[in-house]
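Is this the right way to post structure tokens for a design question? Let me know if I should format differently. Anyway, here goes:
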């Protein structure tokens, strides 16, 4: 059987590289873009008589069932799942097989489609799963609307050899500011799986709510999971208004186990975040004795940073170690995230206990006290076989010996960590914060601020040019962060992450020299159709028009108008008036004289999508 299978693969490979000068392939729409992909003439027809054949029956059982469940849900196909051993004839079937020793790493895969067979080969089950994600993206977008009747599915002949650029490909979700039930968390995990992310950073505690059941400390969820009210509108806006509604929720340990199992099956590791020593108002409301001042404390009803933080006394460390013990029992990830960001030191400065501790341990100041605090927690985690990860503020006062840094305040934290021989994950706010506006705020739902467009996310390069080759190896990858102060429901989570999540997926997965914005711009249009079919909420992108002026002609200045929208309808004026639907439509670069005022805007179905861009030539 093994010999037959190898001969079959050899014959299939010959068919892929046969000469066909008349063939004009349609480009693939896979995101993230594969490292290597070739198209060939023809289509494989997936039908009711197709089967899923397993080369390694037990180890790929979930992957086969996963693929079959999607085919059944959207196309009405229920395929037999059987071992390939003993099959006399392979025809119109899907083969899933582990073939250790392939030069594609633990997460790489080979996907081959020809007239009679679809094969997904990999070293590890994760690679097979990612190959299945690429296969699903080869299906027509209409596949996801096929629920009423059985239909055959045509898949283009192709050969793909693919593996990720980075080992860490992450997305984050804050469930403290706003809570999302387990069903929504699973939908989020499905979105991550579609784009081959392998890490879900779950921000479970903060000032506005404690979201995970801890058996030893029931008041964390009885008190800390609920706030009396929530700020209405933008933070800092006067007059301040609140909705006067009790708000909250938490995940039971059984729910957490179920979500972890769901993610693990999809080859996604969940990293839990338990914030310390700051962002701890919800915990202090439940257990005020952990603070440096007597309280009382309340679960925060607004956003921002709060002065009261954990006091570094033995009672606090016993509490945190007991909490982390239960957390580690629920999450098998090697990393535990402890936050460490935005820690005001006012309470420590005025605390007699803290000042005596600083003197006793020979620390210079409160910054070193924070480092001392983090290092103590790190030792506890290391003693239990786990690694500490924290936001880049954990660099302050000296980095813990084995800690990994998550660089969010730009890239300097990641650079400093890598140069010190520590691993770093890049998540700078200007590129990776998906709570920022992604288009003109006058045409967008309320967001925290910033302006991070789809094109800007796609342009990000995680490895800073300041690092040499040895240091660059410490950059594990990039992560997108979703903070939810202004994201009250899961539909808005989708709107803020899609399609920026897809752009970041390509940053993390695809070789840097294979990235191509115009090609991504084309491919994401097909994914918009998938989003629509799946009922996902998404942002079509920024309608802002970039006006470029070059002094390259003898008769004047060359003007180019561009938008990140694919094939946009741009209309412009040169007379000082704002463009309307009746203004001249942009088709190609044009020439203007010096001193001309150019105004340009995108229109869709006769509607102005953003305020016009304006530039006056010199």
């Amino acid at each position: 059987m093994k010999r037959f299978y190898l001969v079959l693969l050899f014959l299939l490979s010959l068919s892929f590289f046969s000469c066909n000068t008349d063939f004009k392939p349609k480009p693939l729409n896979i995101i993230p873009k594969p490292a290597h992909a070739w198209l060939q003439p023809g289509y494989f027809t997936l039908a009711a008589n197709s089967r899923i054949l397993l080369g390694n029956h037990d180890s790929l059982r979930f992957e086969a069932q996963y693929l079959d469940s999607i085919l059944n849900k959207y196309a009405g196909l229920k395929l037999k799942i059987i071992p390939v051993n003993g099959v006399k004839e392979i025809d119109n079937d899907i083969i899933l097989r582990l073939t250790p020793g392939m030069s594609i790493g633990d997460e790489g895969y080979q996907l081959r489609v020809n007239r009679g067979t679809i094969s997904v080969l990999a070293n590890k089950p994760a690679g097979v799963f990612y190959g299945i994600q690429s296969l699903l993206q080869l299906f027509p977008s209409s596949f996801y609307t096929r629920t009423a009747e059985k239909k055959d599915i045509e898949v283009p002949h192709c050969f793909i050899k693919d593996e990720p650029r980075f080992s860490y490909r992450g997305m984050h979700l804050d469930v403290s500011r706003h809570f999302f039930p387990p069903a929504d968390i699973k939908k989020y995990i499905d979105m991550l799986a579609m784009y081959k992310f392998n890490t879900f950073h779950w921000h479970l505690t903060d000032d506005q709510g404690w979201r995970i059941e801890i058996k030893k400390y029931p008041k964390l969820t009885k008190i800390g999971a609920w706030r009396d009210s929530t700020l209405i509108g933008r933070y800092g806006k006067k007059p301040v208004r609140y909705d006067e509604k009790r708000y909250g929720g938490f995940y039971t340990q059984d729910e957490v186990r179920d979500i972890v199992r769901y993610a693990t099956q999809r080859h996604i590791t969940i990293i839990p975040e338990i914030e310390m020593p700051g962002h701890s108002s919800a915990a202090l409301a439940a257990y005020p004795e952990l603070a440096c001042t007597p309280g009382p404390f309340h679960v925060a009803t607004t956003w921002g940073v709060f002065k009261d933080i954990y006091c570094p006394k033995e009672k606090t460390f016993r509490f945190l170690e007991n909490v982390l013990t239960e957390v580690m029992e629920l999450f098998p990830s090697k990393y535990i995230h402890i936050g460490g960001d935005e820690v005001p030191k006012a309470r420590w400065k005025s605390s007699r206990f803290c000042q005596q501790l600083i003197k006793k341990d020979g620390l210079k100041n409160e910054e070193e006290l924070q480092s001392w605090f983090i290092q103590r927690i790190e030792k506890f985690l290391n003693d239990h076989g786990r690694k500490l990860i924290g936001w880049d503020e954990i660099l302050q006062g000296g980095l813990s010996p084995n800690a990994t840094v998550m660089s969010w305040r730009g890239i300097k934290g990641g650079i400093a960590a890598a140069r010190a021989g520590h691993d770093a994950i890049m998540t700078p706010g200007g590129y990776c914060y998906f709570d920022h506006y992604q288009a003109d705020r006058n045409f967008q739902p309320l967001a925290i601020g910033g302006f991070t467009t789809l094109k800007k996310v796609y342009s990000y390069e995680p490895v800073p040019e300041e690092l040499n080759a040895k240091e660059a190896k410490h950059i594990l990858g990039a992560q997108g962060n979703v903070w939810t102060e202004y994201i009250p429901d899961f539909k808005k989570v989708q709107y803020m992450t899609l399609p920026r999540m897809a752009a970041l997926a390509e940053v993390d997965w695809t070789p840097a020299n294979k990235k191509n914005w115009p090609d991504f711009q084309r491919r994401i249009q097909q994914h918009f159709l998938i989003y629509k079919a799946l009922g996902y909420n998404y942002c079509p992108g920024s309608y802002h028009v970039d006006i470029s002026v070059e002094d390259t002609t003898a008769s004047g200045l060359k003007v180019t108008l561009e938008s990140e929208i694919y094939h946009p309808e741009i209309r412009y004026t040169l007379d000082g008036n704002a463009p309307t639907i009746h203004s001249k439509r942009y088709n190609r670069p044009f020439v203007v004289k010096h001193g001309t005022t150019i105004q340009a805007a995108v229109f869709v179905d006769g509607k102005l999508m953003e305020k016009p861009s304006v530039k006056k030539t010199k």
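Format looks fine. Someone answered above. Worth noting: The CA atoms of residues 599 and 612 lie 6 Å apart. The longest strand covers residues 36-46.
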